[in-house]
TrEMBL record, chains A, B:
Keywords: Carbohydrate metabolism, Glycosidase, Hydrolase, Polysaccharide degradation, Signal, Xylan degradation. Residues 1-22 form the signal peptide. The gene is aguA. InterPro entries: A-glucoronidase_C_sf, GH, Glyco_hydro_67_aGlcAse, Glyco_hydro_67_aGlcAse_N, Glyco_hydro_67_C, Glyco_hydro_67_cat, Hex-like_dom2. SUPFAM superfamilies: (Trans)glycosidases, beta-N-acetylhexosaminidase-like domain. Residues 470-693 form the Glycosyl hydrolase family 67 C-terminal domain. Residues 149-469 form the Glycosyl hydrolase family 67 catalytic domain. Coiled coil: none annotated. Homodimer. It is an enzyme of class 3 (hydrolase). Pfam families: Glyco_hydro_67C (PF07477), Glyco_hydro_67M (PF07488), Glyco_hydro_67N (PF03648). One of its GO terms (biological process) is xylan catabolic process. This is Xylan alpha-1,2-glucuronidase. GO terms for cellular component: extracellular region.
Amino acid sequence: MNRYNSLIGLLILFFSCNFCFSQSSEELWLSYSQPLNNKLKETYTSKIKHIQIKTFSETGEIIKTELQMLATKMLDTSISFTSTTPQIIIAKIDNLDSKFKQKINSQSLVNNESFIIQTITVHQKDLLIITGKTDISLLYGTYCFIKQLQLHKDISSISITDSPKIQLRILNHWDNLDGTVERGYAGFSIWDWHLLPGFKKEIYYEYARANASIGINGTVLNNVNSNAYILTSPYLQKVKTLADIFRPYGIKVYLTARFSAPIELGKLPTADPLNEEVIQWWKSKISEIYKEIPDFGGFLIKANSEGQPGPNTYGRSHVEGANMLATLLEPYQGVVMWRAFVYSEQQSEDRAKQAFNEFAPFDGAFKENVLVQVKNGPIDFQPREPYHPLFGAMPKTSLMMEFQITQEYLGQGSHLVFLPKLYEEVLSTDTYAKGKGSTIAKIIDGELYQDHRITGMAGVANIGTETNWTGHPFAQANWYGFGRQAWDPTTSAESIAKEWLSMTFTTDSLFIQQMTPLLINSREAVVNYMTPLGLHHIMNAEHHYGPGPWIANMSRPDWNSIYYHRADSLGLGFDRTQTGSNALEQYPKEIQEQFSNIHTIPEAYLLWFYHVPWDFKMKNGHTLWYTMAWYYQQGVNEVKNMQQTWEHMQPYVNNDIYQDTRMLLEIQYSEAQWWRNACLLYFQQFAKMPLPEFIPEIPHTLDYYKALKFPYAPGIHPSWN
Amino acid sequence: MNRYNSLIGLLILFFSCNFCFSQSSEELWLSYSQPLNNKLKETYTSKIKHIQIKTFSETGEIIKTELQMLATKMLDTSISFTSTTPQIIIAKIDNLDSKFKQKINSQSLVNNESFIIQTITVHQKDLLIITGKTDISLLYGTYCFIKQLQLHKDISSISITDSPKIQLRILNHWDNLDGTVERGYAGFSIWDWHLLPGFKKEIYYEYARANASIGINGTVLNNVNSNAYILTSPYLQKVKTLADIFRPYGIKVYLTARFSAPIELGKLPTADPLNEEVIQWWKSKISEIYKEIPDFGGFLIKANSEGQPGPNTYGRSHVEGANMLATLLEPYQGVVMWRAFVYSEQQSEDRAKQAFNEFAPFDGAFKENVLVQVKNGPIDFQPREPYHPLFGAMPKTSLMMEFQITQEYLGQGSHLVFLPKLYEEVLSTDTYAKGKGSTIAKIIDGELYQDHRITGMAGVANIGTETNWTGHPFAQANWYGFGRQAWDPTTSAESIAKEWLSMTFTTDSLFIQQMTPLLINSREAVVNYMTPLGLHHIMNAEHHYGPGPWIANMSRPDWNSIYYHRADSLGLGFDRTQTGSNALEQYPKEIQEQFSNIHTIPEAYLLWFYHVPWDFKMKNGHTLWYTMAWYYQQGVNEVKNMQQTWEHMQPYVNNDIYQDTRMLLEIQYSEAQWWRNACLLYFQQFAKMPLPEFIPEIPHTLDYYKALKFPYAPGIHPSWN
């Protein structure tokens, strides 16, 4: 059998309706192709026939095109854009006729991206208004309106007011100039730097469209492990071309700035941020950038971390480095996003503590247009980490969240893991910074510290050249979910799952009821089969593909698995209490109180904070060893459950997506077993206890697992080493 | 404006017909979406309603699917596959009813890939038979039949017998295991080695389909600059998966074999081809391969060339190396394709002579299952080269042609160059090997030497992850054309151009009449604006992007441009006559006679064979300098003409393809000027003559052009250096 044969079925389906589209994975959640019953189709059709768009901008053209696509693909009709007796008016609030405007609560337009969708009655007839202060707000309102149709909502008396809670909602592309993507598992970079600026690929427009539809308003085009070459004049012409394409979609471009660029490009002897020539070089470069890109967003900088240059090289602090650039960007309203992901090989201090120690004392010292960009946890995007203790510890600094959407440590290209569940866990965590209820969401959206001028959330993109953008069809949900949570960090993972499933596949309740829990539970599954009970960073070295709890030969102690799990004959886990590194002291007292007792700490964080005896009695009455094995097996079982659920989903999704997901779940199941087997065999050397009876016979020896090598695993390239 | 807006137009088009498809660049020449008038649609529909496919193989399923796609997409109908009163019967000759069989000239089925499409009359009714000896021949017959419909041919009394003239019609993928493609300008490798064997991408099936449709029956999956890792057991499982997918499409897989694999994988101290342990290692590896892939095609080997290991390292000859592997492959009917592309840095001999000197003496020494794979010219895939003198010089050896489909030296990803015109020039060249008319086509298809057991043609693929496969929409024509000329090396470039244009876009004669000459002339254009009059290899170093006649600092003399053009105050060009390297002596006397006189040699090869004074009087009465400038300008003008023609093609092609091609032609025009300007300024230093009046003012200095750097040009990667 081959996959083409399935086309026959598809084509026959084509014939069974006059004009219907299949779900298209290229079009993400915007294919407008879910099944729709005739009644609803008629209702919707009757309400959107005549639309007036009162703006003559490029954004207005985009709105028009999007609505026409919706009408054509979802409703099999076309819209007339007219100013006579429209059913819908899309206009900036200032352009609305006063008779309409007075029926709208324009006070609720709290910022330039807020919008109102409201049905008003004029001469006994319904009129739907989509309005806001700017063209972009109209675009956001339009996508929100379209979503109501995608979700099959009643639009007869619609009334929605919405506004992003976070200002900078940004994708970070770890894309290199040679087209490779660090930690990319969806092919290669979508930026064709070589053919830019002359060749404007369609994918650039599609990318902007997809992001605009979920409210993402910024993109850092290149890798944080940066290459100064992006700042040369020919490359700035390429960047300008992208910026021009993205602008009408409300998306600003940002670049990473290699701190040593004044040496590499400017041929200066130093990159000392206090050196006048260095400052002049940056000033002139920034002036050049803004001449080409007047709304350039600013710089993202990884400094003095993992070999990147930075101000410390010249005896200067992160503050001095960040503020130098921020001062130069200020006249242009540009920002500096300065990453807090720093840890030093010179330090013997617990890596989990270093960023806090380095940055917390700087609170209040950064300029107002500096955001300190902090990863969600203190190590590095693990399946589960406690939250980063900097959240709540820098009240006078704009802290920006950095989530990873690409699944570096979470199964990479082949595991179905719904990340909004992870983001939700982090965002809803209470830091007690201003008493109970001081969630991380409230810190990064500015609610807790009203004087923060700028708020932001970054997601390391999972986008590549794969036809469906993200490789795994379900990884699209993580891009979507990041956008939704960046718009409103209190958005629940469950509501995102339902929305994304409905918009991408079908609103059929049988499908949604089965698939929502599959998505929601998928994150706990990966924790269980990779790193249960607070284990972390025991992946293979460098490419981080597959288990590697035995990794012990990397050049830096904190690049080795044994640094993190500390297995020995006594037990397992990293003592981060007072008897150990005392990383716990970086957290607020409410958390310290709960976590400093091995019997009250949530077991999910047990091995993160404690070195626990193998025979420690867990809450379930069994030993640590037995319980850990139970979780590994539970993770495997959960993937099996996902497979079984998926088998019943064939009627709801197109055959390509069905087959792709089926094959990928098979790989995930096999790799979950690999994780369980390799980790249990490895840790058993120390625990010296038999495998519990529920663990199936392991087909290989530990040496077999240790010998597996993957020199061409994606996301890392020999040239970067 | 943005490109989405064009979708509205497209969607409106959708509505204007009941069910029609746009041209889809993903589907290559197989979209079955050209406009078709109603009369022809009715005629075709009436003739293909009922088809009997008398084979129950996977290939039979593919035939069925393909015909159903044709019916659905081109004719808006569906086929019933039936054994009662079929209008078409597709069956192997042995499975045909004898009453039908007797009306078919089965003698004309000269090999297992031959097919017959013939209308016979049974009970006064027409019956169309598609037959051959094998399932694959039926697939080829089906694609040929489908092509008649795509070309809007009259099929009422169709009678076609066809057969490939060359046995091995093979794509060479220079794809690395990390996903990069050496000399790839269409994205990255389509082989997702990491997710194989578990994840069978749809593109693998689409790739097989496209190749089968043009008769390509083999694919070398990995780079000739080889990595032994492909021969490890886990990778062979991945290769097996691809082989299983490709098999029902008649495509065999081949691999490149790194000659030092016994050292790298087998941990042997040597890779000496006469060493017993080495032989045993290969024997065992080959046995392992055939256990997984019973119809594995064999090995392609680049040995002792550009740093690749080979038998010379151990004092053994190419014959000893090739025959060792051929002996081991023989029991499995596997072949060795041994590349003749060798030149040594130890030799001071003209690089153009070295392959001939090395291989010609071995004529008759290779085993029968060895093919010596020879590039079309003696240097390296230049816009124009004289033919490789080995053709005609090794009558007792199977010589396989190696063409490059990817445009390493011909504008890479952004230049429209129709290569079948180049291939035609080579294939129709007379070698006089057995008297006048001994064309290269007759050498490689075996006509000239009937005792050659195996014949073959290889093309270095231009395929990558770009949505349209080849990056430039018109580069698809080069893949298509290679397939057609590998099937029959006497196929004219013009007929290929017309076929491809018709199948891909429209049969509209206004379109075909304008676009055919554009394609045909495009090859001479690139010769003119890059390397007129026999100039060669004056591209930039390493990535070969853009002009670099000044390149002089590469580690090997023959990697420098100055080695090839030899410009000095006296003149320009490489003296390869008796007074110089005498490469001319490697050619037959008929050619020597014509070429050894500077006044009778075709001017297209002048600077390849002569160092010509700047003021040499050319046939046009002007000096060399003036004439060379004229050709450079002519090349630029030709690109301008292509642009002007293309502007009128908008009604015939879909908007994406129109816009993409328009932007790419703009780049090509700009780069043609770059070539002209940089080369004329450079050579003017030696010629010391003014630029002719027809050359527009050059906006930059020579230093400007020399300073341009492209460290991230595609197709080459730092890690390979």
